[in-house]
Write a structure and sequence with these properties.
262 residues; mainly alpha; 11 helices; 74% helix; globular; transmembrane; membrane; transmembrane helix; ABC transporter permease
Length: 262
């Protein structure tokens, strides 16, 4: 465990070398929040849709904008680069678990983004756009739990793309497709309460809503406790199922590894 913690700390430290990137990310977050705020101001005005007003939608948009920087789906790019350069071979023979190494690396990066990007962006957004407090202490605790679930599922989805890259030797198309599915079905831009009933049914059958809609909706108290409990249990089931799937794929992948460039 200590080894993986050190990997995470190393990733965090390495990110400190890219200080100029922090300002660009802060600017990008503020611009994104500004655009979303103006969109919802134009759509909602002073009214409400499905019991949700402008302040709630601004808070919802801020949470999802900042959450996107913390998700671990981007680890597939790291594996793809290792496959192309051939460094994957040396990484696999090290006396450690490669999946846990990826997880530690991703969490180190997420911690860096939280400290230097998400929290400063949240303060700026709160000052200029407003940010509602959580619906209750219980909702805040459940929000933290939903964030942990979002990180777990995002890692497993990113890892799944990484493993499929062992066969395809290129993750771009899969990563692009995954990004599209997340954009549509996570509810990050358009919450589920604006979806047609048929789309809501489909979305709740997929794992993507845990990467956007659920944390924000829990924070705002926009869904009942019964639905929160049901979705969290379903999310745990998705985590277990994806874990079994990636473990099976991993065992097959390491037996047919063909490295490009090495």
């Amino acid at each position: 465990m200590k080894t993986y913690i050190m990997f995470g700390v190393k990733t965090f430290s390495n990110q400190l070398s890219y200080r100029s990137e922090v300002w660009l990310r802060l600017l990008g977050n503020v611009v994104a929040i500004l655009i979303l705020t103006e969109i919802w101001r134009a759509v909602l005005g002073d009214g409400e849709v499905e019991g949700v007003g402008l302040e709630q939608m601004i808070t919802y948009s801020i949470i999802n904008t900042l959450l996107a920087a913390l998700l671990l789906t981007g680890i597939s790019a790291k594996v793809d680069n290792s496959l192309k350069t051939g460094s994957i071979a040396s990484e696999l023979i090290k006396p450690m678990s490669y999946p846990f190494h990826l997880l530690a690396d991703g969490l180190g990066n997420s911690l860096y983004q939280l400290v230097f990007t998400s929290l400063p962006s949240l303060i700026i957004a709160w000052i200029f756009f407003g940010f509602l407090p959580p619906a209750s202490v219980t909702h805040f605790l459940l929000f933290i739990l939903s964030l942990v679930l979002a990180l777990a599922i995002s890692f497993l989805l990113g890892y799944l793309i990484s493993l499929l890259a062992f066969w395809l030797m290129n993750h771009f198309a899969l990563s692009w497709m995954m990004g599209g599915l997340i954009t549509i079905f996570s509810g990050a831009f358009l919450p589920l309460w604006f979806f047609p009933e048929s789309w809501v049914t489909v979305t709740k059958m997929l794992p993507f809503l845990y990467l956007g809609y659920l944390p924000a909706a829990v924070y705002l108290g926009a869904i009942s406790m019964e639905e929160i409990g049901s979705l969290l249990l379903t999310g745990l089931a998705w985590s277990a199922g994806l874990t079994l799937l990636v473990c099976w794929l991993w065992n097959r992948a390491i037996h047919r590894l063909v490295v490009q460039g090495g």
